[in-house]
Design goal:
Length: 134
């Protein structure tokens, strides 16, 4: 009985942790590789898909729209996946917007079969771009 209760609790905790990014609202795709959010735009640029190696990725957020007032601090990073796994986000750090814009870059490994997307956290809510895949 105790083992069964522990298994159910563990499964629930993993589902909540893993589901937080799965349920994150995805930004709608634009031709420039950015995604439109209700109050701005989230972008991921750089890298070379389909070829493994170390690549520089830049994730940026532009705050706009009718409800956007003042500067905010956002956490920016990337997330990658392939047919086997979806990795936890790799956070680049946090940055305060300046004139409504924030961007951070980082160089990291990407395998030839990896897809990648930009991620942003603001006030405990995670936003993601569409996946970029080879």
């Amino acid at each position: 009985m105790i083992i069964k209760r522990a298994l159910v609790t563990s499964t629930t905790v993993l589902a909540v942790l893993g589901g937080s990014l799965v349920a994150a609202p995805a930004a709608s795709a634009t031709p420039t590789g950015c995604g439109d959010l209700s109050n701005g735009q989230l972008c991921i640029k750089g890298g070379k898909l389909g070829k493994g190696g170390k690549y520089k990725f830049t994730v940026s957020y532009w705050r706009g729209g009718s409800g956007a007032r003042g500067e905010i601090t956002v956490k920016l990073g990337t997330q990658r996946k392939n047919d086997d796994i979806t990795a936890w986000p790799l956070w680049f750090g946090s940055k305060k917007t300046r004139n409504g814009y924030a961007a951070l870059s980082k160089t990291h490994e990407l395998d030839s079969d990896n897809c990648i997307r930009g991620v942003m956290d603001y006030k405990g809510k995670t936003y993601v771009t569409k996946w970029r895949c080879p």
